[in-house]
Design goal:
The structure is a homodimer of 210-residue chains. Chain A has seven helices and ten strands. The first copy, chain A, is of the alpha+beta class. The first copy, chain A, binds a DNA duplex (30 and 30 nucleotides) through helix 7.
DNA sequence: TATAAAATGTTGCAAATGCAACATTACACT
DNA sequence: AGTGTAATGTTGCATTTGCAACATTTTATA
């Protein structure tokens, strides 16, 4: 994962945070970090662990994203706008908050090299995010559950250069990621097993084709 | 739409293009601009009009994106990686090509204010793109065709602040965007009409609910 | 304006999937 | 270790959707 402060020394980092008038916020376990309202804010998880959670009209909760250390998040990144999403601290968290508009609008900081580096890092992170979103869209546009699974496997396999997949989330969350019914997905995984395309053991899936 | 060269004078723009060693390429109508291979390149359509087109294993072609003047495109933006996508000129085109790696890696240019402005512009464009991708994902994750349509309508309506929708593409392409069968979508639109939720006339859809 | 080509509308049918309900297993917490 | 909770596996059934085939309308092009 790319980092927001790579190629920036800790001294420069301090100057930068002064420049951007960032603030550091602390949250206790189980407290709400962001609600939908705050917009144009970028959060960087310095310490701790949180989850972006959506609650739909039925009250069902789904984990949209896991936020570990170094994770960058915010409304414009995660698509929180107009959705009923909250960011909930699963441990005590220390979060750096930056006003996105300040980054873009201020011109007086342009001559600080570390400031430019910071923006480049942010640009790299956003293009990585686009890449992830493109992958998900590629998967979601497949018509059948089988094709969605296989596309996920292909992308994972290509990215990691391996035929053994370790699911980074539970099967329940996996079905949400693919936007299909969990039990139907389970059925299709069984079909793929029976037909000899894959082997599974827990969250490890081995691709047997090709 | 945001522009890559906003807040940059034409003189600075020239300097910038020298700095980044950009090149301007000309393409005749119906010629192929990008094939899948070229990666890490950003294209800016200066003059003309092109389409990003995917050809699947059946030979079916679908328009992924329309590229009009000022449009920014490239593998990392459009998810062209590993897909059978081509960019085809529909008119004679004049395209500015920039090596993305050069933007990110070079540090010697950091002190040019217009260079920083350029990167900021690029950052803004990428965050806008993320926003679009998030919207599409939001739509694609709906289970039924009806819900996909309604979600599209809602997002459009919110963005444009109107209850009258002018589809920016054909119904055929619309069904591709929603990743559903065209005839099934047509059927569902008819249902929505019959139930009094919408009125349609060509590509104009009027929302009657709420 | 004529004609071909593309887009759109419509329908029957088969197949895939969502849904619900329940059994079984894994996991977390005390 | 024991107990409650969450995750996963399984299956029948109703519904939705994709697919195919064709009619009709619109658009593009000579």
């Amino acid at each position: 994962m790319r980092k927001l402060f790579s190629r920036i020394s800790s001294l420069e980092q301090k100057k930068l945070m002064k420049l951007l008038e960032t603030s550091i916020l602390y949250y206790k376990k189980d407290s709400t970090i962001f609600s939908t309202l705050q917009t144009n804010m970028i959060g960087i998880m310095l310490e701790g662990h949180a989850q972006i959670i959506r609650t739909d009209y039925n009250g069902n909760k789904t984990i949209i994203e896991e936020l570990k250390e170094e994770a960058v998040f915010g409304s414009f990144i995660s698509g929180l706008t107009s959705n009923e999403c909250d960011v909930i601290a699963k441990e005590d968290c220390k979060i750096l908050v930056i006003d996105y508009d300040r980054i873009i609008e201020d011109e007086k900081n342009n001559h600080f090299s570390y400031y430019v580096q910071f923006i480049k890092n942010l640009l790299e992170i956003t293009t990585d995010i686009i890449d992830d979103k493109n992958n998900r869209i590629e998967i979601l546009t497949k018509k059948s559950i089988r094709d969605k699974l296989l596309e996920y496997f292909n992308i994972y396999s290509r990215k990691h250069g391996t035929h053994i997949i370790y699911l980074p989330f539970s099967y329940t969350d996996f079905s949400y990621y693919l936007a299909v019914d969990r039990s139907a997905m389970s059925r299709e995984l069984k079909n793929l097993r029976d037909e000899g395309f894959i082997e599974t053991k827990g969250k490890r899936i081995t691709l047997l084709y090709r």
